[in-house]
Design goal:
Number of domains: 1
Radius of gyration: 13 Å
Distance between the termini: 30 Å
Strand content: under 5%
Structural class: mainly alpha
Number of helices: 5
Helix content: 40-55%
Length: 98
Amino acid sequence: MENKKPQINLHNIKSFLEGNIQLGLEQLHLQPTHIQEQIAYRRLLCSNDCMITGKCKYCGCEVLGKTSVKESCNKNERFPDLMSNLEWIKYKESNDIK
């Protein structure tokens, strides 16, 4: 697997800040259930590669923060952007996610 280096630009700085804020909310158990579930789902999908290395294979960012941001870096190849509660319910049903 290629080691990608994160690019430093305004978009990625925003993602970094968002990811770290979400990690803080996660540690304080302050995220809504549908967001907690989606982050857990993303980490499960990444369990055989990114979670092992600690870095996203698509962008090179730290994986815990990256799985916590709204926008997916993988163009929905692996998982979509974070969804609203209703969108997440529909997504779980159509993808047979329990």
